[in-house]
Amino acid sequence: MSNLRSVKKILQRNDPQFYNSNALAQDRFYSMLRGRPFWIVDKDEHKAADELYGNACCFNHGVGLPKSREDEEKPIFDYEMDLIDLLDVQKKKYIWILKATGLGISEFFLRYIAFICTRDSAMRGKRICIVTGPRVELSVSLMDRLKTIVSQRSGIVFSTKETVMLLNECLIEAFPSHHLDAMRGLTGVKLILIDEGDFFPPSEQENARIVSERYIGKSDPIIAMVSTPHLPGGLFEKIQLEDDKTCIYHRLYLNYRVGLNKVYTEQDIIEAMKSPSFQREYDLKYGYGVGNVVTPLEIDMAIKLGEDMKSISSNQHTIKTLGIDAGYGSSKFAFVVSEFVDGKVRVIVSKEFERAHHEAMVDVAFNLIVRYSIDKVYVDAANVSFIKSLKKHFGDEIVDYERDPFIYSSRIVPISFGSGHGAKMISHLKFLFGNGLVAIHPVQHQQLITQIRVARTLENGGLDKTKGNLTYDLFDSFRLSTIRYTQDGIEIVRDKKKFG
What we know:
The protein is of the alpha/beta class. It is 40% helix and 16% strand. Strand 3 and strand 4 form a beta hairpin. The longest helix has 19 residues, at 136-154. It is elongated, with a radius of gyration of 29 Å.
């Protein structure tokens, strides 16, 4: 017995009188909306249809128009009709939408689901799956919104469980992202909506994509991924960066500008711009307003300085420092070279390497040191073999640096991130940014800026590396490279109270 038949039998058995009366209300409602368009754009045509059919002029008048925060009815906007064109005219099957908060795109897709279930009988006996974040309350909330859209004018009561809805004999079910095993092996799946997928936990993001796309060859569904951007390196940025020739998704970018003077007033946007998260929530930038190590304003100041100083060539007379986060296992090898020039700490090199070979990374470090005449190199003390290899290249004395980490005559200086040293480096980084002493060019060092932007500290002052799919290897290399500098360019690593 299919799930659809099971749901119908349970409803009939539990309360046959209610089931039969509710079925009559549904029949009246479906008859009213059958064949009606989602929305009529032309105002004269819409008026004529209203005179002829009343509330049945179109689907959205039939169920009731969406409402603003002030409970004011709103029409269907042009960018929503563009989605209808993509889905129903151009027949795009796989749609990826990066959108500003408040545009009503999730509401649109809930209405579209109700629309395709009621416009004809094509969806009878089929399934629609909605994937939400890991909390079951999110699934319940989204399903409640869908049920309200249908019931607010029709009087239909949905007595199925909170995450299930039977609409014109189409079974609609919401699945939390951590419980997608239940979504495998279904039949007749014709639409999958992944709502706010960029905010799923990292492992659940990839699983949501895998489970959804496995139905492509099985039941040929529409797959719609919709989200406001969250962290770099997540599901949405990965799809955004896929090659146009191989990416299966039609990608749409809907920032706040498409909703200006529709869902937002100009004053709304002026107020929203005061928030550190504005660029992420409204202008489709990953990671903005997420970190707490450096403020967005301080990062913008560092970027401006980087652009202002781009015409200044690096020369052999400035103090230069190389920070190396020597990766092992799944982490990356990262290198950052900074210099003290015109009273500022300027980044001149930022590179990272995945699955790097030890010997190759020693060569990279050696070449950077020679090319930029670097006299101090600070390396994560955890990678003992790399440090010993690098020291051999320069004739540095190899010592037990776990016992005595600071050999000031040495060029290669191991630095431990433990025992509070990492937190002290972050504190010093905050000092440099807070005093406008950092310059980073935005094009040359984009990945480093991203990691700085999203870096967050824990209560103990250490770096929180548990969020998202990001690594912080460049950030770690950067903070290693900056411990040498104060406003006067003094080598503060000599102060053992700070970093010893």
